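ok trying this again, last paste got cut off
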Amino acid sequence: MGRVIYGFDTFEGFYGTSSADGDLVTDGDYKTEEGYFQTLSEIANIHESFQPRPQIKRTHLVKGDASNTIDQWLDENPHAIISMAIFDMDIYQPTKNVLEKVIPRLTRGSLLVFDELNCPEFPGETKALNDVLSINKIALRKTVYQPYSSFCVWD
């Protein structure tokens, strides 16, 4: 079947911010507009209609706090191997929770991508990565196109 993309989002903005996230973020920041979930679903469907086999759905949106929805997703997808996980949650708790839960599904060569690493405005993502994997034990790589995005290859 090939690659399938699962996007997890509350669509309600940050939830459960804490002191680990610094002073610049609060619950509700980055909330999307009403109807955005439906709009994004429609865009994904249009994109899929251009694929060679559009009858095979390859993009799925999971609405809710990823700290909670990841458990059900893992239970419903015992076959799934995670080849790339992109962490763009910005804050500590969901980043930590989801990272801990996906590790057993990674394989050598899987990519872990972090959107706000080493970012003064969003310290929670860096703290979560360090608490789970210890930053000094992984090789982080960067792109010249994004100042705070980094990734590592799972060994």
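PB: full thing came through this time. The chain has one domain: 5-153.
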